[in-house]
Amino acid sequence: MDLLQPGDLVVANDAATLPASLCGIHIPTGRAIEVRLAARRSLERTQVDRFTAVVFGAGDHRTRTEDRLPPPELRPGDQLALGRLRATVERLLDHPRLICVYLHGSPQEIWASLARHGKPIQYAHVHQPLALHDTWSSIAAQPAAFEPPSAGFMLSWGTVAALAARGIGFATLTHAAGLSSTGDPRLDARFPLDEPYNIPKITAAAISAARMRGDRIIAVGTTVVRALEAAAWANGQILAGPGLARLKLGPETHLRVVEAIVSGTHENGTSHHELLRAFVPRHVLAKMDELLDFHSYRTHEFGDSVLIERNAA
């Protein structure tokens, strides 16, 4: 809080996490399969029949992702039984574990089945199964994210009130945060996938006003950066409404909107760590990593965060 100043505008992702892990049976072989929903094209509540998904064989989150069994050999047209949901493999996406899947049923039936049968995507560092509400931040609203926009866990409504008391603005957007890891470096290199977002009118107006004043836009997490920079790609202006974030943040990214980011601490070599190079060069991140290790900061799954300001150069 002490690193922020009056006039700053803090923007957070209010996406609630979906129960995006669906276990079931690959009907052609009778073998177990886990389907982890990973992306869709729109946040419209009625458009929930087609997803990009990552698939695994038998097992659960207690096995490290990189050690999970491969799925049964999949072909377009294969049928999947996922609890009460029925699904069809529409096509393979250049990797044996990345598919486009079609969920059968009306939007109401699909939402009900997800709620009844789906579980939050989880990794082996937390052995106890998570309840869905464990993956929601305090500001969680529309179910949209496939994994939690984890930087938002640092926020509480008390924090938001404290920001307001210091003259610091707060606004939200909704971005469908995707998977953080698949356990396969070749597949992980394709992430993040295209992700839909929506920027409310009140948020677009707050950003415009802050920029006109010359005040900082501070993103809570990389998903917020990705949404805002995607929205500003055409002409540098933030327009309200839906969009699809296609850009990948990295050292070549020219940031137009966001001056600083609040992020979890990420291990060197991970895709999330590379995203931070949009703000500062590699040698600055290396020095930051040294300090984080020296002071025993915990990685982002366990709650510690950093504030990184954009390199002025």
Q: What are the segments in which pLDDT stays under 50 over at least 5 consecutive residues?
A: none
What percentage of the residues does DSSP assign to strands (E)?
A: 25-35%
Supply the number of helical segments: 7
Distance between the first and last residues' Cα: 25 Å
Structure overview:
With 313 residues, the protein is an alpha+beta fold. It has 2 domains: 187 residues, QueA-like; 98 residues, Beta Barrel (Thrombin, subunit H), CATH 2.40.10.240. It is built from 7 helices and 15 strands. The chain has a 7-stranded mixed β-sheet with strand order 13-11-10-1-12-14-15. It is globular.
Which secondary structure elements does this structure contain, and how are they paired or packed?
Elements: E1 9-13, E2 16-17, E3 21-26, E4 31-39, E5 50-56, E6 79-82, E7 85-92, E8 98-103, H1 107-117, E9 143-145, H2 157-165, E10 169-175, H3 185-188, E11 195-199, H4 201-213, E12 217-220, H5 222-231, E13 241-245, E14 260-264, H6 271-275, H7 282-294, E15 305-309
Parallel strand pairs: 1-10, 1-12, 2-9, 12-14
Antiparallel strand pairs: 3-4, 3-6, 4-5, 5-8, 6-7, 7-8, 10-11, 11-13, 14-15
